[in-house]
Design a protein that fits this description.
CATH topology: TIM Barrel
GO biological process, one term: folic acid biosynthetic process
Function: Catalyzes the condensation of para-aminobenzoate (pABA) with 6-hydroxymethyl-7,8-dihydropterin diphosphate (DHPt-PP) to form 7,8-dihydropteroate (H2Pte), the immediate precursor of folate derivatives.
CATH architecture: Alpha-Beta Barrel
Low-confidence stretches: none
Shape: globular
GO cellular component, one term: cytosol
Radius of gyration: 17 Å
GO molecular function, one term: metal ion binding
Largest sheet: 8 strands, parallel, barrel
EC number: 2.5.1.15
Number of domains: 1
Mean pLDDT: 95
Bound molecules: pterin-6-yl-methyl-monophosphate
Length: 269
């Protein structure tokens, strides 16, 4: 099966690749509509920037940013995922018609999140996370990054199932760029099959991340976020071959091309 394409709508003033661009609700809704028209299967709406060093918005601010956008995109027929670490925001988004929760903390940041997901019988993306953006890069310390990310995600599965979440509802995500150095990200990508091998659906979110800006370039000559879609297409082709369920991206057309090419390679005799 072709991996699903999750298109990103960040309703934030400061997300690292597109912060501020879709901050007005009208612009965010228009962006979501465009992503849908381009072939996105899911629209991921988020109101909190998780770029390294970012400070958190208030709950009210996060609700004001996201809920009108969720409501409008659901009205257009979109399958919407809410990118939040807060159970109150997730609950409001589900009430507004969102059908899944994308929690970059995998239920760690808010103790009410696992119970909410269990009660609502929705899918949850459990991403590997070691702490809030403000100081997460100090936690980028691993002996064996693949084994540790895998084990920590298994811990999230246990906690979520313990709270009543149906195991089949849990989608795993290695959390590229979250408490990871560039080297950690490359190793996780190379060994993505170790995660898909756990038997859960896997989501990969490499789109426009900093490690794609730096690779092969000298300091000062990095690709800027908007120049990273070709590099992203390559990582998503690789993720497709590794058997991911979905990829989370900013640019849908180049992603669909990458998936088509990867699948042709896979299907060739
Ligand atoms: N990355 C970002 C935000 N949300 N959610 C999941 N599940 N996986 C990710 O890798 C992920 C995410 C940060 O990227 P952005 O600022 O471009 O949205």
């Amino acid at each position: 099966m072709r991996p699903l394409v999750m298109g990103v709508v960040n309703v934030t003033p400061d997300s690292f690749s597109d912060g501020g661009v879709w901050f007005e609700p009208g612009a965010a809704i228009a962006r979501g509509r465009d992503l849908l028209a381009q072939g996105a299967d899911i629209i991921d709406v988020g109101g909190e920037s998780t770029r390294p060093g970012a400070l958190r918005p208030s709950v009210e601010e996060e609700l004001d940013r996201t809920i009108p956008v969720v409501e409008s995109l659901v009205g257009l027929g979109a399958v919407v995922s809410i990118d939040t670490m807060r159970a109150t925001v997730a609950a409001a988004a589900l009430d507004a018609g969102a059908s899944m929760v994308n929690d970059v903390s995998g239920g760690l940041a808010d103790p009410d999140m696992p119970g909410l997901v269990a009660e609502r019988h929705v899918d949850i993306v459990a991403m590997h996370w070691r702490g809030h953006a403000v100081d997460m890069q100090t936690r980028a310390v691993y002996g064996d990054v693949v084994a540790e990310v895998r084990a920590e995600l298994e811990g999230r599965i246990t906690a979520l199932v313990g709270a009543g979440v149906d195991e089949r509802r849990i989608i795993l995500d290695p959390g590229f760029g979250f408490a990871k150095t560039a080297e950690h990200n490359w190793t996780l990508l190379k060994h993505l099959d170790r995660l898909t091998g756990l038997g859960h659906r896997v989501l990969a979110g490499t789109s426009r991340k900093a490690f794609l800006g730096r690779v092969g370039r000298d300091a000062g000559h990095e690709r800027l976020p908007l120049q990273r879609d070709v590099a992203t297409a390559v990582t998503n082709a690789y993720a497709t071959l590794a058997g991911v369920w979905a990829v989370r991206v900013h640019d849908v057309p180049s992603t669909l091309d990458a998936i088509d090419v990867a699948r042709a390679i896979e299907a060739a005799p």
